[in-house]
Amino acid sequence: MNDELTITTLAERPELQEPMWQMLDTWAEFVSNDPVGWANIGRIVAELPEYVLVATEPDGTVVARAFSVPLQLAAEGRGWLPGTGWDQVMLWAFSDLRHGRTPDTVSAIEITVADGRLGRGISGRMLAAMRENARRLGFEELIAPVRPSRKSEEPAALIEEYAYRTRAADGLPEDPWLRVHVRAGGVIDSIAPASMTVSGTLEQWRKWTGLPFDASGPVEVPGALVPVHCDAERGYAVYVEPNVWVRHRT
């Protein structure tokens, strides 16, 4: 049950790092090959453990993790939620850390629930804990480049239309993960049309997906929010993922 979960920061319980990484999840393999994430996700754990949350059951089993990063959104040349979303806030955060800029905002990076524990409301608990952690650390706002959970079922749909679909019964978003955010008090702000970019050779895409990637054009890949662009003549394919920016007051 959710009320039996214990959620702590990795700074408080560093011994959870290894089991956190070993937790089985449902991410598609190509997602982990975004170069910005590949280069920086481990740095969050190593350099910003107070922004890493881990949920455990009474027996100590890790069932969820949540990563966020602090950044200076008001820095010169910023001041808006970037169209390059997830990748951009990660780059901003570590640039700010390197240059000693004082952060004014926290951005969500990932909330992942263990395979076999989905559908139990754990993701909502982790979102609430992330907001509480941001407030505890002195921040008034949490921003989130949200990856709508069911957009992959409609890869051809425009994210600009999909993100703003609502249910007639209560006016909440149709998408379940966006609905969790809005129910928690989040406000949909804008679209990040190029939030994550994964490029690779056709051989890499075949390995990641099991699909042939032998003809040029859009390829619908399980788990992808939009089609992957394949250029068979030139030997590469590129996936540009859109996300939805949501703002939360902490």
Q: How are the secondary structure elements laid out?
A:
Elements: E1 6-9, H1 17-22, H2 35-47, E2 52-56, E3 62-71, H3 85-99, E4 105-113, H4 122-136, E5 141-146, H5 159-162, H6 176-183, E6 187-201, H7 202-209, E7 217-219, E8 228-231, E9 236-249
List keywords for this structure.
single chain; 250 residues; alpha+beta; Aminopeptidase; 9-stranded mixed beta sheet; 7 helices
Approximately what portion of the residues adopt beta-strand conformation? 25-35%
Tell me the radius of gyration: 18 Å
**Uncertain stretches of 5 or more adjacent residues:** none
Number of domains: 1
Mean pLDDT score: 97
Distance between the termini: 25 Å
Q: What CATH architecture would you give?
A: 3-Layer(aba) Sandwich
> Class by helix and strand content?
alpha+beta
**Tally of helical segments:** 7
Number of strands: 9
Helical proportion, percent range: 25-40%
Under CATH, the topology can be stated as Aminopeptidase
CATH class: Alpha Beta
**CATH fourth-tier homologous superfamily:** Gcn5-related N-acetyltransferase (GNAT)
Principal-axis shape equals globular
- Secondary-structure element string: EHHEEHEHEHHEHEEE
